[in-house]
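QUALITY CONTROL LOG
STEP: pairwise intake check
CHECKER ROLE: data steward
CRITERIA: each record must contain a sequence immediately followed by its structure tokens, with no blank fields

ENTRY 1 OF 2
RESULT FIELD BELOW
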Amino acid sequence: MIFEGKSLSVALTDDSIAELVFDAQGSVNKFDKQTVEELDQATAAIAASSDVKGVLVRSAKSTFIVGADITEFTALFDMDPADILTWVGKTSQVFDHFEDLAVPTVVAVNGFALGGGCEMALAGDIRVVDTTARIGLPEVKLGLMPGFGGTVRLPRIIGADNALEWMTTGRDREGAQALKEGAVDAVVAPENLHEAARSMLKDAIAGKLDWQARRAEKKAPLMLNENEAMMSFSTAAAMVAAQAGKHYPAPHKMVETVSKAAGLDRDGALKLENEGFVALAKTDACKAQVGIFLADQLVKAKGKKVAKGATKEVKQHAVLGAGIMGGGIAYQGAVKGIPTVMKDINQAALDLGLNTASSILEKGMQRGKVDAKKMASTLNNIIPTLDQNAIADADLIIEAVVENPKIKAAVLADTEKTVAEDAIICSNTSTISINQLAKSLKHPERFCGMHFFNPVHKMPLVEIIRGENTSEATISAVVAATLKMGKTPIVVNDCPGFLVNRVLFPYFAGFSQLLIDGADFTAVDKVMEKIFGWPMGPAFLLDVVGMDTADHASSVMSDGIPERMQKIDNDPVTLLYKAGRYGQKNGKGFYDFSKDKRGRPTKTASPQAYALFEGHVAETKTFDKEEIIARVMIPMANEAIRCLEEGIVASAAEADMALLFGLGFPPFRGGIFRYIETMGLANFVALADKYASLGPIYQISDGVREMAASGKSYFSQSA
């Protein structure tokens, strides 16, 4: 044994090949501080051994190396820039030391080789992967760039154009595609990986493969003339500007770094990479995106833990109500192989539900993501029916009828009479109290909310709403079923609007008050989209939600939380609703919706909407962007804080993920709580106090004032 550590070991085979095997004590291999130190020690031990003729790197686990240990990053980013530079410089040198070994090196990759795992592979002379391999540099998704040599080695292996596409998008490749692009040298079946890697290493040792030339190319400047460099990097910069925009500095920094490093050797290029990594590590966007990653891990872990407690296996679904929403829910179960009865009281609704599912599949086929077999099997899993008895064998029933408490109560009562005693019944209500609906059932312990978001097939979140009588067995079974449907469940407690809509409607209220005070809705949308980063501004979002839906929901919120959410007199949303301007669903709301000559959807600010508001709102005036953002975001932030304080949601991390997955909260801001803490709690308190005279939705709780005064963090409560 040449070296033996806790995360990896090096043994010498009879034919003088040193096998460096990653085998961490946990479930996966990752580059934490310990593993990096051991890799350096192992490399030094190999270099000191005169018996070694070549090095084979592999994993003893089902996957190679998933990347760096992100849990260590939060402490890292709090360090001074100089200290971060020292850390990343020393760490990247560990990979240099491996690359500089005096013997050929082959890396055998199975499963994931992401981030630092990919950089480990790139440090080798030859790369062999099996058919399970996924290789890539996803650091951009954390607001970062590769820091262990990825921006240096990958462009010199596959060309700057391809490398920048890999890095700025963060998309990984399967083995065949990586081979086509030149990132790996061979793809083999899993059972042949070890022997294939050994065979190529022996060829390199024997001089049949020119590993020295390969290595020299990685350590030299990029082989680009002046014109090629200009074309390559200007094209990459334009692509990043168009796709990433200004809110995400990481892809821009990558293009800049690779461009500046093009004429430098490895060591000079790595110095620029290290400096770029440090610059990004200190950005708010990076902190936010790393926060999202950690919050996502927490949510997934909680979901799996809760699902493990499920004692009932859900084998068949039933969806009650076959409109666009019902059709979307039916599709989501069916596409995951779950037989789903779709029940309604009229054939037209069933046809609409089936058409919804079919259109999703057809679009998937057009993009090459769905084949005819998948389309047929999915549609075969949907059983449309007008017969109430057809739901009798369903294990999980999801009510998705019109948002009317009396109608829902009647449907739920009839459902309970029809299904088995151990069947679980859920409501897809977006605002109506689960406790209220549960009163229509004899066994409320098997009932909870299961709130999907539209469009169902695109929105990852499902709010699981626990009523006061809901059993934990029911929650566990519904969480497990949600995961099986490919969605992210977040469990919340019952209250008006639950979590997502409860924090959304104060946001809408802030927007409405802005319009009443004279703001132009197009100007507000522009600021909230272009500056704050929402995918849709509040006016556009209301048009998508539908003015009828929004007006109804605001009435429910007003009845449930009258002290803060009383309906606003002359609310522009209500004015539009009463005028029959429902938004996208009938082509007219704040905006008029139509199609251009090519059939592409268009929207223009509606003169009719402006005319409708006359006499109800102040004369139009200009608000600066800071005031617009403050006046719509403070109410949302305040209500999110109250939800956490009241125990509606268990942690700030879960609240952030709920708004990210349910509303499209800008990822570079990390979620509503990350946004508050990036601003600074003391600064948030001061800003809210500035606008407190506008009404209760702007007035902060004693809890947040105390948090700010004591210097506490909401994320210390998210473990």
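ENTRY 2 OF 2
RESULT FIELD BELOW
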Amino acid sequence: MKKLIYTLLLLLVTFPAMAQSLFEQYERFLTEPRTYVCYRPDGKLKIDGKLNESSWKKAAPTAPFVDISGEGFPTPKYETTAKMLWDDEYLYVGAVLEEEDIKARLTQRDTIIYYDNDFEVFIDPDSDGHNYFEIETNARGVIFDLMLDKPYRSGGNFMVQWDCPGLKTAIHCEGTLNKSKDKDKYWSVEMAIPHQALTMNFNNPLKAGNTWRINFSRVQWLKEKGPEENWVWTPTGRIDMHMPDRWGYLYFVDKKVGTSQDELVYPYNQAIYKLLWAMFYAQQDNYSKQHNYLRATEQFFLTDKELKALPADARIAVEATQNTYQIAITNPAEGVRYVINNEGRFRTEKIPAREVKNWLWMRLNNRSDAEWKKWFALLKECGISGVMFEGYNENIYRLCKEAGLEAHYWKWTMNRRELLDKHPDWYAVNRKGESCHDKPAYVDYYRFLCPNHQGVAEYLAEDYVKEAHKPYVDGVHLDYVRMPDVILPVSLWKNYGIEQKEELPEYDYCYCDVCRELFKAKTGQDPLELKYPMENQSWINFRLDAITRVVDAITKAVKADHKAISAAVFPGPSMARKMVRQDWGEWTLDAYYPMIYNKFYYEGPEWIGRSVKESVETVNGRAKIYAGLMFGDIKDNFEEALDEAYNNGASGVSFFDGPDEEYLHKFKAYLDKRGFVVK
């Protein structure tokens, strides 16, 4: 109760702040930063501030600088642009600053240069938002260079004692310095910044294909009227240059300037990056107001707009205490986890590629050995891990194994015809007293055994062990491990002229003498005398437990033989209990294949996801869930159906009644696109 009250109070506290979506709240901090593609010079550069070499002329200028706060603020009075080049030793920066009255008063290195009119360079080579560099100069060429361990917003410290070793700078003035009576044109800056100078925790060297974060600022401090101006290449959204997440992207290309026009390659998924920083700013605000951090994803009240751009199977995780937090967004398709903490430290982590196993349910047919070999090779090539064969043929199993596939024996469990003559008393009886022995429900092949009859569990266990012992069999796969359907999938009602809005007595099993006596001994009640048997939880559990005991006996025997055991089960444990007395969430098999045939239930692909999610949550890591998909049901929504299965935690899928060769190749392309590794 205390936990519930705490949660409700927390939601009440945080909800007002989240009335707007995060993207709306922090729009100014989430605009897409500017980008620059940087090429090699086509000749030697003389660092003289003039930018008159051929390489500089060919290099594209940045977009003109804008107010630091971004859109909606006045256009700067004077235009400022920058250019960049690189080689094996230096990053070259050139800038042109229009100015009618060029001024510079300060003359001593490492004084606060922005108290003059200045030009500033900010560089974060590894893009983590920490351990970045700042180099400032005025029109005299006086340098202020420093390094910061983290931004000021996170309690950062600046290290003025750091001097950029090997730095070359020069200034050129088109006009006269510190003479206000004449009218000047501009001053230009040229810098050669050695790569090796930027060494603090440096793991992203300047080389072709890499991307750095960079920004430029022009501070107009020496004004006759009003506060200073802050003009920047890419705006931060507020008067604060120390927001490395807002800096531009600098992409290095191994080509000479003027020979190519390349597009920036972002170093990470921009949708994930944007959302991660939106959540960071939300955490900052919440802490300033509540002195606490949001501790669960739900507390951010993320909208569809914020989530829809994420990769299909992206996962958000929030870990927080009162004073610290970490937010991670995992992108399995890329094999990368994006992480940010309370200090604004951003990093990416490689994660292992997601491993999946995929299956087919197949009936044996009369293919030649050559045809089988070709078929199995195709399955293996297209991402199928194994086959559930209904029946046994040693040669076919051998060919399957030789192709690198698993071979499992798929066999019905409770639905058994072979005992009709030998054990007629073993068959389940409905509430009308009719036995599956001579009056099966729905169809003639529905010959279900009673799970409580002495000898049934032992017979089935021995039978499955016998199948598991056969050559080339990797495991056994249970099917029809249940009672007859007390409720059919709605699409089948018309086939039998019924409406199963309630449990009808002719489809409600098992009321045999054995079950009645066992239940009476346990509860003192005869199930035939129950007024509402469909509502009596003891009677419901009695039959669920009976099936479970049979499964336990089979499982114990098969696992003692060191073979795998799995089952085709009804979709979602809740549906399975209601429809067929199958409590498979309590079993101890290695894997479950819920038969999520969505069109049987007049459902779309999204229902696959809901069913998989319930199944995965139920087994809670104790077993694998492989989504059983009817190929015909998903053919028109193939990728969407697969996404629903995998995105909700399925360890793979299993196809029934397909797919054909065309769709097998589509399946392979899908697995490759998602970056899955097939085991």
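INTAKE CHECK: passed for both entries
DESCRIPTIVE NOTE, ENTRY 2: The chain has a mean pLDDT of 93.
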